[in-house]
């Protein structure tokens, strides 16, 4: 039953939201999990405690993925804690919407540095650290890369870049038995979505009206797919993007 027994996984941005849920699902399936966070130590410690109190293995490691030197430290600390690496979930991400006339360089770089630069450099570090049996990289993209809602030019572009990097890295790393796939969620109720003000009101109502299954997602709608991509159940799947959005596309 333990699909990830003896696996070691890093989940970036796992102090809350989708990342925290993936970390808990991974631990439940037997993985040792590195719960990465940028600033929410309390949230990350809470996730670790929840895992370890049920007999699972997890450590919290602070690192801002927008800074490659901190990514190197994250991977070094993973090696120190668990000795190896099998799975990387590139989940850490920022979403800020803005009409094009208000877009600033700061708005652009903040999102691209976390969502794209961070993902590329973490993937580079993972490819170096995976053993001869390879590994699995799971990128958390978004349905926004294809749904393309107004005022999301920068955010949606970061996720378009994630989709393309997923396919490129799958082609490039396949010969080393490293699989690379993405999960592209629709709107999921998380702390970040509440903070952004998307969880209530007009935007949510519009999304739900266009969603065949008629609701936004919960983190539990996403995490099982991450377990699938991390496990041997998906051994012959790479370079794919799985949209999980209640049918919104
Ligand atoms: P969230 O609730 O805002 O949580 C974001 C997580 O990422 C937190 O743990 C945060 O850590 C971490 N993080 C942010 N910047 C970081 C950085 N520079 N370095 C390391 N960690 C960082 O977000 P979410 O809604 O769960 O979204 C997670 C991912 O899913 C993102 O990539 C997002 O684009 C994608 N996604 C979300 C939705 C949605 O509707 N929720 C839909 C599609 C795709 P701190 O708290 O320490 O800052």
Please report the number of helical segments: 9
CATH architecture annotation name: 3-Layer(aba) Sandwich
Ligands present: NADP nicotinamide-adenine-dinucleotide phosphate
Q: Give me the strand/helix succession.
A: EHEHEHEHEHHEHHHE
Strand-residue fraction? Answer: 15-25%
Straight-line distance between termini: 33 Å
Category by helix and strand content: alpha/beta
Q: Which descriptor suits the 3D outline?
A: globular
Rg (C-alpha, Å): 17 Å
So what's the CATH class?
Alpha Beta
Structure in words:
There is one protein chain. With 249 residues, the protein is α/β, with parallel strands linked by helices. The protein has a single domain, classed as Rossmann fold (3-Layer(aba) Sandwich), CATH 3.40.50.720. The chain contains 9 helices and 7 strands; from the N terminus they run βαβαβαβαβααβαααβ. The protein has helices at residues 17-28, 41-52, 68-82, 105-129, 144-147, 153-173, 191-195, 201-209, 223-230; strands spanning 8-11, 32-37, 57-62, 87-90, 135-140, 178-185, 241-244. Strands 3-2-1-4-5-6-7 form a 7-stranded parallel beta sheet, sandwiched between helices. β2 (32-37), α2 (41-52) and β3 (57-62) form a beta-alpha-beta unit. The radius of gyration is 17 Å and the shape is globular. The model has no long low-confidence stretch (mean pLDDT 98). The structure holds NADP nicotinamide-adenine-dinucleotide phosphate. NADP nicotinamide-adenine-dinucleotide phosphate is lined by residues 12-19, 36-40, 43, 64-66, 91-95, 114, 140, 142, 185, 187-188, 190-193. This is 3-oxoacyl-[acyl-carrier protein] reductase. Belongs to the short-chain dehydrogenases/reductases (SDR) family. Pfam families: adh_short_C2 (PF13561).
């Amino acid at each position: 039953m333990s699909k990830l027994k003896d696996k070691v996984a890093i989940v970036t941005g796992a102090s809350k939201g989708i990342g925290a849920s993936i970390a808990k699902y991974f631990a439940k399936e037997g993985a040792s999990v590195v719960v990465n966070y940028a600033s929410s130590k309390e949230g990350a410690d809470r996730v670790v405690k929840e895992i370890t109190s049920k007999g699972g293995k997890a450590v919290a490691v602070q690192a801002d993925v927008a800074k490659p030197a901190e990514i190197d430290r994250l991977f070094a600390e993973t090696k120190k804690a668990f000795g190896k690496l099998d799975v990387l979930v590139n989940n850490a991400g920022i979403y800020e919407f803005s009409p094009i006339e208000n877009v600033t360089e700061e708005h652009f770089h903040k999102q691209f540095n976390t969502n794209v630069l961070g993902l590329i450099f973490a993937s580079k570090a993972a490819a170096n650290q995976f053993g001869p049996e390879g590994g699995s990289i799971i990128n958390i993209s978004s349905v926004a890369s294809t749904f393309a809602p107004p005022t999301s030019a920068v955010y949606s572009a970061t996720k378009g870049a994630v989709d393309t990097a997923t396919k490129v890295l799958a082609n490039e790393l396949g010969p080393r038995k490293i699989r690379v796939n993405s999960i592209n969620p629709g709107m999921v109720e998380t702390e970040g979505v509440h903070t952004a003000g998307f969880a209530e009101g007009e935007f949510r109502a519009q999304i739900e009206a266009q969603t065949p299954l008629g609701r936004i997602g919960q983190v539990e709608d996403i995490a099982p797919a991450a377990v699938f991509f991390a496990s041997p159940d998906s051994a012959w799947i790479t370079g794919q993007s799985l949209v999980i959005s209640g049918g919104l596309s």
